Amino acid sequence: MKRDRGWLAGERDVDWIEELAAPLLPVQEAIEAAATEGGQRVPIVDRDSGRVLAALAAGRRRIVEVGTAYGYSTLWLALGQGADGTIVTIDPDRSRTDRARGWWREAGIDDGRITVVTTQAALEPASIGKAILLRRDAEQCLVLFRMVLAEYRKVIRYNGAHRSQDFAIGIDGQITNWAVRAYRGHDVSLRGDEGLFYIDTNTPMMRTQGRDCLPIDFYLQALPRTVRPLLRPLARRVLDRYFDPRTILLDFLANTSIHGRPDLLHRFLAEGNRFLNEGLIVPAPRPIAAGEVERYIANDVMTWRLTRSLRKVEELLQRRQAPMTTFRQIHYIWTHPIF
To answer: Which of 213, 250, 310, 329 could, after both became Cys, cross-link 206 (CB 3.0–4.6 A)?
Structure first.
């Protein structure tokens, strides 16, 4: 039989293996039932595959699994692995992985053994805030802005609740860092209750006892190496604006204009200043004026152009391109719109 590569276990063989195997746990049967309840088909492995996974996991200290679903295969791996093993399992669906965690606990698996990484599901390009901003009328853009302000409120309340612990989070709240959940297309009106995804890769930033939890150099990696030592002392002041609600709002308003909708500025200003004055922020900050937004835009554009130019100079110094090419690129940066 060992030499017959075409051999497959028959019904009698499977029954014999099943008799030798440990009895199925009630929680495993519960997961199997849940995977098909209500006519749904949550993808889980069959029992035979589960037993194979348990056998393969024996003696393995660390396992990475892609695709958790209801955690059925994860449980088989954990049971086969032994009490000193750990598993990292990756899945975008929190509604499923939260149920899975409950079943693992029911099976006696310690929480510390299994780490769930909830990845971001793929987003429709049309759901990104900038895409909506460029395609929708003023009323719909105002609905989107109010949704963003609702997220700002969550951050302000969170920081207020943790002030006694001297802990705070900061965000880069501009329009390009938001996407509408379950976006139904540009021809369907936004209601305002769809909710938002926050998709910026550098934030939220965190501070404990006034100190940044990530080293300043982490944020300087996008800048040319030649200027990082010069900008390091200024970086803290730059980061401060992501912890100040007024400056977060000012940055949003400026970037709305930079990204092609200056016509929305006055309506957004009125809405934003009402937000600043509604009592969440103590003391209430002064209102933002249109002139302040324009100055912020000019400074933002100057900073962007200077950074891009320095990067081109760095490429020249590293001899990755000819001097004349560098000159033409820098000239283009300073003479054309940035977006």
So the answer is: 213
